Amino acid sequence: MTAELLTGIAELTTQAAEFSHDDDRLRDAALVIENGRIAWIGPAAEAPAADSVVDVHGRAVLPGWVDTHSHLVFAGDRAAEFEARMAGQRYTAGGIVSTMMATRAASEAHLIANARRLRRDAEAQGTTFLETKTGYGLDLASELRSAKAAAEVADVVSFLGAHVVPPGIDRRDYLDLVTGPMLTAVTPHVDFIDAFCETGAFDVEECREVLLAGRAAGLGLRLHGNQLGSSGGVRLAVELGCASVDHCNHLDDADIDALAGSNTVATLLPACDLSTREPFPPARRLLDAGAHIALASNCNPGTSYTTSMPFCVATAVLQMGLTVREAVWAATRGAARAVGREHGPDAVGSLRIGGRADLQVLDAPSVAHLAYRPGMQLCVATWTEGVRARP
Ligand code: NIG
User: Fold this and answer.
1) Which of 12, 61, 280, 350 could in theory staple to 26 by disulfide, Cβ–Cβ 3.0 to 4.6 A?
2) How far, in Å, from the CA of 390 to the mean position of ligand 1?
3) ipTM above 0.90, yes or no
């Protein structure tokens, strides 16, 4: 068992209360990684001896990003649909079927290689923990293949058979398939069940049926809600105690109150909002009301073809009214809550003694630079469970 000392840290963001002083950052800090875990955190001047030393020379260190919403198992792209949107067409869920056809036609090896490529891109930007979903297979064999591919590349997998009803099958028959044989087949490979609660996808009662079937199978619950209108998804997610409801662009006061009075995290997807030209979610109002929020990339070929969490953090600060600290929290510890990993031995999104050594180094003295210098490649190194990688 060897100990690695990181020292010369100008600003260490731990997201752990035990290290908070006037704010959540320690200055002139150091930490020790041992056996994939954080063994020590404190002032650099008091750092213990270690087997190896990495001097980060006045840079900022923070937890790796926790990206809790992505759809990495797909083939093809939808650049033409994107261009049409930028020329004025509104996003509808219609394009999902074209990705479904490309995904069904692709080999398993291609799907895994494409998802791995995207995960590598994410890691180069500081992501150390990632959720991804099925949802572009939409028949039993293709969803099962997608679930297995997702489990190869992601830390957490969600089953999104209820993305849209594919062509050629009756709606009721498809719901019976999703809540029956398809669910049974994918359950060993997934952690959560998800559904798309939206006009053009599934209504509240259909989503309730899907989520309750997933719960009966032992899965955690999450939901896409209120992306294109007031779908009722947010209220359903709160009622069922979903870990997260994602998108949340169209919220009324009662939705915000419901979220604020619940443990359901509102996961906001700023890159998707830019690409679909939907209004940004009322992030400031959510936080001021006391709701939990997270930020995620929503990487997918239709509405958000990016894995860049720094881009999401910068957008949340520059366009959605969050402070830098709030946005960084939402992309780390807030996000961990959205996948049930905020506490316990497998917690992610924070740096604490005995916890996972998932962290990143920025080529900057402070996390403020994430929004102050948007679009720059600031991540220069990551450690995932104590193993170092460089972009
Ligand atoms: O989260 N909104 C539903 N699903 C994806 C987009 C799917 C697509 O258009 O391919 C999302 O944005």
Assistant:
1) 12
2) 30
3) yes
